[in-house]
Amino acid sequence: MTENDISYAIRGAAFKEHSALGPGLLESAYEPTLAYELKKSDYDVKCQLGLPMVFEDIKLDVGYRIDMIINNMVIIEIKSVDLLKDVHHKQLLTYLKLSGIKLGLLINFNVPSLKEGIVRIVNNL
After folding, report:
1. For residue 42, what are the contacts with CB-CB under 8 A and spacing of at least 6?
2. Cα 68–chain centre separation
């Protein structure tokens, strides 16, 4: 299974969730329901995974938490905001770089149409 296959499944689960719940809820409501949908399809889902930062020879646990990692191949960063800002994109890209993972999805559930709320970010390693 490739990152693209996983990304397709994530988007499908997110569209299903957004159709059922709609916009306007907190991020903490969307994360467990998305995780549930993906686990039903036998994906390995890790939520709120700590991500250390390595600088030179030291490993620092500085409190970074990835919302979700699917099959150790795709990071999902969940938002429920009026507008995605540049800092949200940079946050996900930083998580991708620190983890060595290639693909991430930034999903903002606070939009009328979820098609407008999904951003795909690639780490060019």
Report:
1. none
2. 5
pTM of the model: 0.91
Closest CA to 71 of 41, 102, 46, 97: 46
State the distance between the two ends of the chain, measured CA to CA, in whole angstroms: 20
Contact, 16 vs 40, CB < 8 A?
no
- pLDDT tens over the chain, length 125 residues: 899 999 999 999 999 999 999 999 999 999 999 999 999 999 999 999 888 777 788 877 777 889 999 999 999 999 999 999 999 999 999 899 989 999 999 999 999 999 999 999 999 86
Residue that the structure tokens 């990071």 belong to? 75
Per DSSP, helices labelled H in 1-117 are 3-21, 27-40, 86-99
**Dmax (CA) of the chain:** 47
Which residues 6+ apart lie within 8 Å of 91 measured at CB? 77
Instruction: Report the distance separating Cα 32 and Cα 52, nearest Å.
Output: 23
